[in-house]
Amino acid sequence: MSERYDCTDPAQRVTGLAEAAASLRKGDLAVIPTDTVYGLAADAFSPPAVTALLAAKGRDRQMPPPVLVGTVRAATALVEDLGAFGKDLIDEFWPGGLTLVLRANRSLIWDLGDTKGTVAVRMPLHELALELLKETGPLAVSSANRSGSPPATTAADAEAQLGEAVAVYLDGGPCSADVPSTIVDLTGPIPKLLRPGVISVARLRQVVTLAVDEEWMEDDGGAAPGGAATDSTADGMAVAGTEADRAAPDGAAADSTAADRAAPDGAAADSTAADSTAADSTAADSTAADSTAADSTAADGAAPGGAAPGGSAADGAAAE
């Protein structure tokens, strides 16, 4: 039976976070608030859990979920490298509403779906989400809705759509907006916009050169055209046809050094969170960035080691 916790109540918040972390470790699903819309979360390194996430949403492996992390260090452990532009974008927009598609670290064993050797990664600007990520390590997170339906902006919306498929609902109150994260593909020579969202093209172009297809005509706020995002925009954009789809062959041999999942968040690093790169220019949530991003474990729970199955750098979702 599903449990729902009102995280605006301090006592329920503590209990809810503990129950959500325990459920996720068991391979169950949890719904969590983020700085964009509510997200459906699963252990990124549990293939059965990711399969359950996709089934709950009513989608297949062609739309793999992105991964949320609690620190920049965790993100760097999941990818081959940040490329020429990743650090600048992270410095400017993380934690916040920017999802980056990068080459996945081939020494990790996980199966997010047909990712073609890439992974979509984001560090959210939300205190509750970051606190949970500190306990669990990286989570596969897709928007908390059935595929084709509008993303949930309240825990009640998510529960109405997902019901008993979810073990724990963390109710952090209504989301401030229903606009998803902006997705940028960094697998090619020039950053490319894959999906418009909360961060406008104009803002991104203040930091990097950005290729934008004509179809992405942003409004003044940089949101996806047409206002409220539906599942197709908020939660799943395969990168077929982009640079990410021409990924290098995946599947490197298992790396025994990655074989131990780091204990979720051991020692608290300094408040810059081993993320000297995460310097929150988005520090609008200094409590989130400081109290929870201080997660010093390199992989925030980096997977038991092995090869990334490979597939498409989709934004399978953006709880985001």
Molecular structure report:
By secondary structure, the protein is an alpha/beta fold. The protein has one domain (3-291): DHBP synthase. Helix content is 23%, strand content 13%. It contains nine helices and ten strands. A ten-stranded mixed beta sheet has the order 1-8-2-3-7-4-6-5-9-10, with helices on both faces. Strand 9 (182-185) and strand 10 form a beta hairpin. Helix 1 packs parallel to helix 5. It is globular and about 50 Å long.
Which key features would you list for this structure?
ten-stranded mixed β-sheet, alpha/beta, 320 residues, 10 strands, DHBP synthase
Largest sheet properties: 10 strands, mixed
**What is the approximate shape?**
globular
- Computed structural class: alpha/beta
Q: Roughly how many Å apart are the termini? A: 26 Å
CATH superfamily (homologous) name: DHBP synthase
For the record, the CATH architecture stands as Alpha-Beta Complex
CATH C-level name: Alpha Beta
Helical coverage, percent range: 10-25%
Task: Please tell me the total number of domains.
Answer: 1
DSSP strand count: 10
| Radius of gyration computed on alpha carbons | 17 Å
Number of discrete helical segments: 9
- Average pLDDT, to the nearest integer? 77
What is the H/E order?
Answer: EHEEHEHHEEHEHEEEHHH
Percent of residues in β-strands: 5-15%
Query: How do the strands line up in the largest sheet?
Result: 1-8-2-3-7-4-6-5-9-10
Poorly predicted ranges: 218-320
The CATH topology turns out to be: DHBP synthase
